[in-house]
Design goal:
With 399 residues, the protein is an alpha/beta fold. Helices cover 38% and strands 18% of the residues. It has two domains: 150 residues, Aspartate Aminotransferase, domain 1 (Alpha-Beta Complex); 227 residues, Aspartate Aminotransferase, domain 2 (3-Layer(aba) Sandwich). Strands 4-12-11-10-7-5-6 form a seven-stranded mixed beta sheet, with helices on both faces. Strands 1-2-3-15 form a four-stranded mixed beta sheet. Strands 13-14-17-16 form a four-stranded antiparallel beta sheet, covered by helices on one side. The protein binds pyridoxal-5'-phosphate (PLP). Belongs to the class-III pyridoxal-phosphate-dependent aminotransferase family.
């Protein structure tokens, strides 16, 4: 095996534009639930590419799909059809309430497409209405328009002037949403679980109410399922657990299982792009579509999602035991997008100590830990991770 060392990180990190604080680790390989660093230390990975690696690291079926497709056709250009693109679009539509797909390379780009489609629809059908209601603490991406749509407070002063036309209202507040609707409003866009905000689920009544408001005011309902889609919350799409008929859904992350592909999926009644309105060089390339198709096929297998729900229940049970023992707070989320309030402990401190102990976690807030393991998680890894986490909490208590 090629040798690596942490000095590579030290020596070469300055060649990268610093965009985030990274530990001085360099991951060399991944296998299922585990990542291995430059010294071949193993880490149980509950970040999984940021809720991306649906089937864990480097699963055989993704490797095979990559090899098969790359030896056949990598990119004929987006100006031509290709078979994996057609197959994946069919699979997404046949397994959802939607009819048409536009493929992109990232979740932000899918949301950018949704914003553009809603505005075009408003031009054609609602006298130029263009405003989109989004929610405080939401996250929709890092392009200029999606940062403008995002309700994360830290984004507010950045890169001014932003794209105008986004009205932010408190999440789970139907009255505030209704009050924000005016003649220029064209759509409401939300995450059904606010992931980056710390795993905050939308209330059932709130979503049903939004759906009714959209019908009453002729608005488009857009669900950003970049983080919640493809089985993450225990159903193929999170909207299926709500009483709602969204017009547009965006997907990313788990759709590719680790490779860059995302999508905007729409009800055909709102389809209104003319040729040239939307596109992109890599959109719908057969290599990514073939891999995504293989991942989706696995997620659609009969026992896949029931097992996600079984292991989620077990995970929550083990987390509540931990909460009881160490005085942690509430558990939030659905399926395998879960979070726990860390009570008296600092979330980022736990993350740091857990990493040293061989467990990769994320703290989306000072007071929370988020868990986004591969959907192939079993009770065995849950026990292993909970034992590591308990060890970290014991150390913190002892201090
Ligand atoms: C809900 C949601 N929307 C959009 C995005 C942006 O996706 P990407 O990073 O692929 O652009 C994310 C990423 O975390 C997300 O969680």
């Amino acid at each position: 095996m090629e040798s690596h060392s942490v000095t590579d990180v030290v020596a070469k990190q300055n060649y990268l534009i610093p965009i985030t604080k990274r530990p001085e680790l360099c991951f060399i390989r991944g296998e299922g639930h585990y990542l291995f660093d430059q010294n071949d230390n193993a880490y149980l990975d509950w970040i999984q590419g940021w809720a991306v690696n649906t089937l864990g690291h480097s699963p055989k079926l993704m490797q095979q799909a990559l090899i098969r497709q790359s030896s056949q056709l990598i990119n004929p250009s987006p100006a031509f059809y290709n078979q994996p693109m057609l197959n994946l679009a069919e699979m997404l539509c046949e397994n959802s309430r939607f009819d048409q797909v536009f493929f992109t390379n990232s979740g932000a780009e899918a949301n950018e497409g949704a914003i553009k489609l809603a505005r075009k629809w408003g031009q054609k059908n609602k006298s130029g209405a263009f405003k989109i209601i989004t929610f405080q603490q939401s996250f929709h991406g890092r392009t200029l328009a999606t940062m403008s749509a995002t309700g994360k407070e830290a984004f507010a002063p950045l890169f001014e002037p932003k794209v105008s036309g986004f009205t932010k209202v408190p999440y789970n507040d139907l009255a505030a949403t209704e009050a924000a609707i005016d003649d220029q409003t064209v759509a409401v866009m939300l995450e059904l679980i606010q992931g980056e905000a710390g795993v905050i689920p939308a209330d059932a009544e709130f979503v049903a109410g939004l759906d009714a408001l959209c019908k009453q005011h002729n608005l488009l309902l857009v669900v950003d399922e970049v983080q919640t889609g493809i089985g993450r919350t225990g159903s193929l799409f999170a909207y299926q657990q709500y009483q709602a008929e969204p017009h547009i859904m965006t997907l990313g992350k788990g759709l590719g299982g680790g490779v860059p592909i995302a999508a905007m999926v729409i009800d055909k009644t709102v389809s209104c792009f003319d040729p040239g309105d939307q596109g992109g060089t890599y959109n719908g390339n057969p290599l990514m579509c073939a891999v995504s198709g293989a991942v989706l096929k696995e997620v659609l297998a009969a026992d896949f999602l029931p097992q996600v729900n079984r292991v989620s229940e077990y995970f929550c049970q083990r987390l509540s035991e931990l909460a009881e023992e160490f005085g942690l707070g509430a558990i939030r989320g659905k399926g395998l997008l879960l979070a726990i309030n860390t009570g008296p402990f600092s979330g980022p401190k736990i993350v740091e100590l857990a990493r040293d102990a061989g467990l990769l976690l994320n703290a989306p807030r000072e007071d929370s830990l988020r868990f986004m393991p591969a959907l192939t998680l079993t009770e065995k890894e849950v026990d292993e991770g909970i034992a590591l986490l308990a060890g970290v909490l014991r150390t913190l208590v002892a201090k």
